[in-house]
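QA checklist item 7 of 12: single-chain prediction sanity check.
[x] sequence parsed
[x] length recorded as 198
[x] structure emitted
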Amino acid sequence: MPRKTTRNPQGGGTIRRRSDGRWEARFTVGRDPGTGKQVQKSVYGKTQAEVRKKLQAACSALDNGLYIEQEKITLGQWLDIWLEEYVRREVKPLTFKTYQEQCNNHLKPSLGAVRLSALNAHSIQTMYNKLETGTKEKPGLSPKTIKNIHGVLHKALAKAEELHYIPFNPSAACTLPRMERKEIKPLEESTIADFLGA
C-alpha cells in the first residue's frame, strides 16, 4: 500500500498512513542540545481524524509549555492540560474556578502522581472512600461533594479517552456514596396555626 502524507493545516507536523494501515503524525518538540538536530515525536491512531486530534493537542501543549510525552504523563499533569486547553474557554469563570479547586484540593493530592496510563478504577474508588470517611486532620466529605469531584475527574478522563491517551475511562466503574434525602416532617396543626398567625 503506498504511503499517503498530508501536512497539518496549522503547520504543526505531518500526517501519513503507514504500511501497516495505521496513521502516524510526526512533530518537532525541540532540538538536541548536543547535535542541534530536530527532535521529533510521533503519535499514532487508526484513522486520520484521530491522529489529527492528537497532533493538534500536542502542538497546543507545546505552544503553552505543557507538552509531556504521552507515556510519561501523570494524572496531575493531564488535569492541568485539560483545564487549560479544553475547559477554560468552554465554561464560565466561576465554573472553571470550581473545577480547578476540585483538581488542586482533592484529585491531585490523592492521585496526581499516578501515571495516566496506569490509573485504574480501584485507585479512584479508594480515593472516594477515603474522602468520605475522612482522617483525623480532615473530616469526611458529603456524598454530594464527592459526586462533584467525580464529575470533574470523569470529564477529564473522558477527554483523555477521546484522544486515545487511555483505552477507557476507569472512573465509569466506580460506585459513589449514596445521597440520602432527609425526611420532610410536616408541621403539626397547632404549629401551623401559630405559623399562619405570625
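[x] summary fact logged: Residues 143-162 form the longest helix (20 residues).
[ ] second reviewer sign-off
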